[in-house]
Specification:
Layout (H helix, E strand, L loop, with lengths): L4 H22 L11 H22 L10 H16 L3 E7 L7 H21 L3 E6 L4 H14 L8 H4 E3 L4 H15 L3 E5 L5 H11 L3 E6 L5 H7 L2 E4 L2 H10 L2 H29 L4 H5 L1 H5 L1
Parallel strand pairs: 1-2, 1-4, 2-3, 4-5, 5-6
Helix pairs in contact: 1-2, 2-11, 3-4, 4-5, 4-10, 7-8, 10-11
Length: about 290
């Protein structure tokens, strides 16, 4: 049976891991630290292999099915409503630095911005993109410009009006966004990215001008505020799926499918761990035997 290269590489990686672990065990070398369980390393290797395999399949032409997200579909409705009311569309994806742990959420926010910019070009809407990430200024300008140009409406692009860098300081950024929402009387307020205490400030300001609001974040402490106050919301990791849908990048969609494998594995391990605990055995002791023997 012929084995594809995409499947062969993960198999080789797992085989080498097992071989090195076996040699270490035979030589009684403690290869893995007790503070870093061996089972966690194996799970990491398995998830990386699954992600690589799905990416390889997409390059071979296989389609990755993705559940449609109501909040993503509502972006077009938000833009269309703004055009009918003669009011601009506002999009923001946060403040801080792109080198932080929240970088994937910034990228997802840029993907949503790209989708909104194309729709604004399609319907002839004015777009205001505010941000507090200095490293992303040029990228944001290019994303908005490409949106208008791809829709055949280059005359609508004005970098001074469309892209507004505010500040990377949290509450100064929050105050500036709030002022922009009220001063510009926006028709739609799209907030996607990593947010903190400013999340409710944005939603309240959007509500004051009766804006159509779409919001999302992967920060679990802020999700409830968006769910309660926005017309549509991206819940948790839906922001990454939205960014992938907006960009149309098949490899990104494949990586999301790899993450789904990790979620399924986590659910299985939780259930198995509870059952083993009820039977008087700790799963962690059963999974970490390798480094203990070594």
């Amino acid at each position: 049976m012929k084995v594809s290269r995409g499947l062969l590489i993960p198999i080789v990686v797992l085989a080498l891991t097992a071989l090195v672990s076996g040699v270490a065990w035979a030589l009684r070398i403690q290869l893995y630290s007790p503070r870093a369980p061996f089972s966690a390393f194996l799970i990491l290797v398995g998830l990386l292999s699954a992600g690589y395999l799905f990416m390889h399949e997409t390059k071979s032409g296989k389609e990755i099915p993705v559940r449609r997200i109501p909040a993503f579909d509502a972006i077009e409705e938000a833009v269309a409503r703004s055009v009918e009311m003669g009011r601009p569309v506002h999009v923001t994806f946060g403040f801080g630095t792109i080198s932080s742990a929240h970088a994937p959420q910034y990228v997802a926010g840029l993907g949503v911005l790209s989708h909104a910019a194309r729709l604004c070009g399609k319907y002839g809407a004015k777009l205001i993109a505010t941000l507090g990430v200095p490293e992303a200024i040029a990228t944001t300008e290019e994303v908005v410009r490409e949106g208008y140009y791809s829709a055949g409406r280059p005359e609508l692009y004005d970098p001074t009006y469309n892209v507004r860098y505010l500040t990377d300081q949290q509450f100064a950024y929050a105050s500036a966004v709030q002022a922009t929402l009220i001063r510009e009387n926006v028709g739609a307020n799209i907030v996607v990215g990593p947010f903190y205490a400013e999340s409710l400030i944005f939603m309240e300001a959007g509500n004051m001008v009766n804006a159509f609001q779409i919001a999302g974040t992967a920060r679990e402490t802020q999700i409830p505020f968006f769910v309660l106050t926005a017309d549509y919301s991206f819940i948790g990791e839906e922001v990454f799926a939205a960014g992938a849908l907006a960009s149309g990048d098949k490899e990104t969609l494949a990586s999301i499918r790899g993450q789904d494998v990790g979620k399924l594995l986590s659910i299985v391990l939780v259930i198995l761990g509870i059952l083993m605990l009820l039977a008087g055995t700790k799963m962690v002791d059963a999974l970490n035997w390798a480094w203990k023997v070594g």
